[in-house]
């Protein structure tokens, strides 16, 4: 399986039949005309190759600059820049799981494995988990990537420091290395793939040890400056982006209401591989990143949650939802 495929239920009314599962029949995709979808689904190598080269060059350049200036006052800003560019590799990892980064399939797999390693999300495990996310988008129990509305502003702030991600990452790496996957993992991991998934986890951990060892050999401070620090700062940006995608939308199978599109600045759109067009992506997961802006032009008026003021607007809506959800009911 090179491409992510949604589980299908009984035939539905949309152009591609029913999406999701029998108990969570996703709907909303029928707003996209079949002829338009056919045009937008065309996969190409050049856009992905160009963007991965630019993204990779930006990471390498910022990393070299960070190391050259790590004894100056610029160390923290450069560490943040380097870390954010690293974390935004979630974009090509995500595209590769859908098989839409490139037309050439093996390029998707190579980029998926490398980017998954670099941001602590092994490719095979993440691909199967992400399939389940698309099948059960915003299902209160079955969506493995559903982000609960924080119970308070204080918890929201803590979550913005990626506490949930690092806790989950430690958990699935421990389970993956030992091959002792829990019941939640086995919901989306095929039994026939457990051996391959375990092997990938083990290879990734060996790679992490080797990378930290090489950094330490360069300088005792290098693991902190080039690995731990940047990953910490980068995941904060990624939390802001990923929480904006679904949090405080509807817990329903309606794709027009359970996902948020966030209109960010062009630079962030570019380095996040157009993932801010997230509702459009869920409406048509087979559409490559480079065509999502065209899809947005066609369907944005039908999407219920569009944060036109960027991440500030999206998180303002989330904070309002937190306050509203936990406001005491009026007496009487």
Structural class: mainly alpha
Q: What is the alpha-carbon Rg in Å?
A: 20 Å
Q: Which whole number gives the mean pLDDT?
A: 92
Low-pLDDT stretches are: 1-17
Residues in helices, as a percent range:
55-70%
* Annotation field: number of helices: 15
Q: What is the N-to-C succession of helices and strands?
A: EEHHHHHHHHHHHEHHHEH
SS elements, strand count: 4
Beta-strand residue fraction: under 5%
> So what's the overall shape?
globular
Can you walk through the features of this model?
By secondary structure, the chain is mainly α. It has a two-stranded antiparallel ribbon. It has a two-stranded parallel sheet with strand order 3-4. A hairpin with a 2-residue loop joins strand 1 and strand 2. The longest helix has 25 residues. It is globular, with a radius of gyration of 20 Å.
Summarize the structure in short.
Strand 1 and strand 2 form a beta hairpin. The protein is mainly alpha-helical and 332 residues long.
Tag the structure with descriptive keywords.
332 residues; mainly alpha; two-stranded parallel sheet; 15 helices; 4 strands; 58% helix; globular
